[in-house]
């Protein structure tokens, strides 16, 4: 390519780039309206669970105290972290007082979210485990969690055109509630420094507690007959155990759907769609046997080909 042709090509590409949008997507008025209306709604069939009194009170204290600025709720999915948090916040704040965001976020999008919620009373960040693995994102969040000289200042210097319209530094005044299934990289200096600036609470329930709460949730359903409620609870009690994978309150929706729409095949459908940890199931049966612990470990090895170490690890998990 000749020099003048190369120059013309560069000029053409430069002009064309002006018409390519590189700004981050922002919710339009219609999307904003949907979010605002959702914030006003009450959760159908919401049940006040005594086991969740501590996280409820933590939310109230977090919103009122001046001693710390953020709360982290973490724990396995399907235990109602989001429902509890949103419902509790709705009891305390008006819809315009808080913002809610969930899903995957880049450092720049986190910065933008914080900036747009900077003057709210609360920002809820849901399902954003990805930020814990990104040192830039954790660094940005640290500024939102701890005061320096009486202010929480957040700074992010970037030359990205996507940051157009965002300042390099701003003051963040809102409280934060972070919801996630787990906190990865807790040994990382940046992550541990971020966590130390918050109050963290783990959602954890035993198998028996989950069954008891599911019973309350079923009993609260006004769209079910007494017989249907009994069928749902029976199905879950008989077809789940500590070996059931992802045993949480979402299983209840399956049970209700199958009992209401296909009662004759409800049990078969439920069993076909609920997974079990076979190794854990074997350990559970061995623990209920008359065998000594050493004999249980031998039987586990004979049936699975896996080591004593694996047996005792699973046994410890089940015992908890």
Could you please describe the fold and organization of this structure?
This protein is α/β, with parallel strands linked by helices and 320 residues long. Helix content is 50%, strand content 10%. It starts with a helix and ends with a helix.
Q: Write down how many β-strands occur, each being a DSSP E stretch of 2 or more residues.
A: 7
> What fraction, in percent, of the residue positions are helical?
40-55%
Global shape: globular
Uncertain runs: 12-25
Q: What distance separates the N and C termini? A: 71 Å
Structural class: alpha/beta
**How is the largest sheet built, in terms of strand order?**
2-3-6-1-7
Proportion of residues in β-strands: 5-15%
Mean pLDDT: 84
The topology string of helices and strands comes to: HHHEHEHEHEEEHEHHHHHHH
Helices, by number, come to 14
Key phrases:
single chain; alpha/beta; 50% helix; two-stranded antiparallel sheet
A few lines on this structure:
This protein is an alpha/beta fold and 320 residues long. Helix content is 50%, strand content 10%.
SSE layout and pairings?
Layout (H helix, E strand, L loop, with lengths): L2 H15 L11 H12 L12 H12 L5 E6 L5 H12 L5 E5 L4 H10 L5 E5 L8 H11 L7 E3 L13 E3 L3 E6 L8 H7 L3 E5 L3 H13 L6 H14 L11 H11 L4 H8 L4 H10 L5 H12 L3 H12 L1
Parallel strand pairs: 1-6, 1-7, 2-3, 3-6
Antiparallel strand pairs: 4-5
